[in-house]
Amino acid sequence: MWLRDLFTAFCKNECVPVVEDGSRDLIARAAAACRRIADGHPNPASLTIETVYAALGVEDLRRVAPFITYMADRGIVDWDRSRLQALIQFDRVAAILRSHDASPYADLLHRYRDNLAIRDRKPITQGRALTAAIALLSELKGAPLAELSGRHITSSLRRHPKNRPLLADFLRFIADQGGPRLNPRRSRAGAVMAPDQKQQIDTEAWRTRLDKPRSKVEAMALIAALIAHTADLSVGSVLT
To answer: What number is the average pLDDT over the span 102-126?
Structure first.
């Protein structure tokens, strides 16, 4: 096995923990990793980040990190942390899509992922965009995409307000695919407040002021206003 000499040198290296249990566990994990790597790659020249990741997966890579570092330090594999992170994120994107294979929107989600890739969106961005799209589509509860409306967008953003910029991109994609043309608009600054909302805010303000009125006259006026709002009367009729 071509990794045998490297593994033996690693076991004698100072990077292995001095603590007996720690060194035994790490050596056992490294030995298992060596077997899995060598089984698929008898020729060390074919070893890359991609092949090591495919052999071990993200969890086992973490568990044998000192051994991987040792391999990289000796030029066995050209290790690039950013490339590894991209591989991990690609796997997460694939997992998101697999988890929704039974969804009526599975094909749409796959096409959206392909669209994101064509536009050179990073894997982590693809994952976030898909998660936001799925949150919106869940509001449809299986209904046809043609029924998607502003009501669904509002409901989704109420639950996930940070998804707004991601949803804007997804909605443009939907429109380009022949779906409804929608936009997650922000509330207009200075928009007229609904009457019941204004009444609630006024009532709370009056109750707060009534805790410490500046004078007896103000207290009476606040009480009259509260009664008027509660009983749907005019303030004048309460005072008379």
So the answer is: 92
Mean per-residue pLDDT, 126-143: 94
What pLDDT shows up at residue 184? 78
d(CA 94, CA 86) in angstroms, rounded, equals: 12
Measure the N-to-C terminal CA separation of the chain; round to a whole number of Å.
Answer: 101
Name which of 232, 226, 224 is nearest 203 in CA terms: 226
